[in-house]
Each structure stands twice: as C-alpha cells, then as structure tokens.
Amino acid sequence: MTLTKADIAQKVADDCGFMKNEATEVFEKLLDIMKKSLIAGEDVMISGFGKWNVKSKHARRGRNPQTGEQITLDARKVVSWGYSPVLKKAVNGDRKP
C-alpha cells in the first residue's frame, strides 16, 4: 500500500487531535517550505529520516532510443535523497523508530 498525503494528514489529525483540514494545511505548508528550499539550492535534512539536496547535471551526449539519432541532453538540476542511518536500521529491524 502506498502512503499518500491524505493518509499522512489523517494520521497526524488522529494522533495529535487536529481537525483533518488543519493537519492537511500543516503538511502542505511543510512540503511548500521544503520545495522552496530546494528551489533556492538549499539542502533539506530531517534528522533520523534523510536528506534531500539539489545536484547539477552537465549537458551530455545521448541517443534517441527509437531512432538511434545522437542528441544533446541539456544541463539540468535534479533532487537526490539519501536516507539516514537511523532509518536504515529501523527498516532493517535493527532498531525501533
């Protein structure tokens, strides 16, 4: 099962005693802050969970897989994510989260 934004907001509402719309608003604001930080080129780190950062990719030669034609892929930025060792241990059953 995939955990969605709506599921997370409902769990926050249930666990913290918020109304669902309040929990949704808080969660949306959190995501908005994270997006704005990444757009500004800042890293986002949540201790015990993971870290997001923006990496620059240089322009490079590529190939169209349908035609085999050589093309140039433009330089771009990508968001990468690395998990925390604490999360890794929890997922592997070494420690309770």
TrEMBL record:
GO CC, alphabetical: cytosol
GO biological process, one term: regulation of translation
InterPro entries: Hist_DNA-bd, IHF-like_DNA-bd_dom_sf, IHF_alpha
Keywords: DNA recombination, DNA-binding, Transcription, Transcription regulation, Translation regulation
GO molecular function: DNA binding; structural constituent of chromatin
A Pfam family reported for this protein in Swiss-Prot or TrEMBL: Bac_DNA_binding
Keyword Methyltransferase annotated: no
Family: Belongs to the bacterial histone-like protein family.
Designated name of the protein: Integration host factor subunit alpha
Organism: Desulfomonile tiedjei
